[in-house]
Specification:
- The complex is a heterodimer of chains A (114) and B (110).
- The relative contact order of chain A is 0.33.
- Chain A is 0% helix and 48% strand.
- Chain B has 110 residues and is mainly beta.
- In chain B, 0% of the residues lie in helices and 59% in strands.
- In chain B, 37% of the residues are buried.
- The chains are: A mainly beta (114), B mainly beta (110).
- At the A-B interface, strand 5 and strand 10 of A face strand 4, strand 5, strand 9 and strand 10 of B.
Amino acid sequence: NAGVTQTPKFRILKIGQSMTLQCTQDMNHNYMYWYRQDPGMGLKLIYYSVGAGITDKGEVPNGYNVSRSTTEDFPLRLELAAPSQTSVYFCASSPRMGGNQPQHFGDGTRLSIL
Amino acid sequence: EDQVTQSPEALRLQEGESSSLNCSYTVSGLRGLFWYRQDPGKGPEFLFTLYSAGEEKEKERLKATLTKKESFLHITAPKPEDSATYLCAVQPLNDYKLSFGAGTTVTVRA
């Protein structure tokens, strides 16, 4: 019963490097989300997707890109890593947005950019 | 802009010492208010959804209540395993996206 799986769990990047954070879910959920969590701050929505081939910006999308080629996978890409992107990144999914459909979260990727 | 403020930031309790966490919100019409629990190194885990003022939900030692401006998470006779960060999130009527508070970190000592 995997739910939402994120890889890697930890990563250290140098400024200017790029990387992709992987997220996959096995619940056949249509909706998927990427959040970042910084100390003392609430979760901030980066991007979300309502289904394969459809993505949209959240509150803090600058410096990130996403794609959704399948229902299961929703990778997040950092093209030119900056220290401000040091954070914990969470992927989540839900059957649909809102109402009595809570989001299910993965265990996060802890990313440090030095 | 939707705002969610949780207080206190941190709460240290003795085992069995009941207390309450507060989630104050400003939203242009509330579709739903969500409570999540987050353990260190883990993702948030869903606890409750509340939809209208006066509504209450219970799960084991936790009870969530809702008014028009705030929600409370009551922890009755807590145990050490209730130690976690509790997150509150609101969903406005005119959108489906969630706005999260910063959380309250609860530590229960045996």
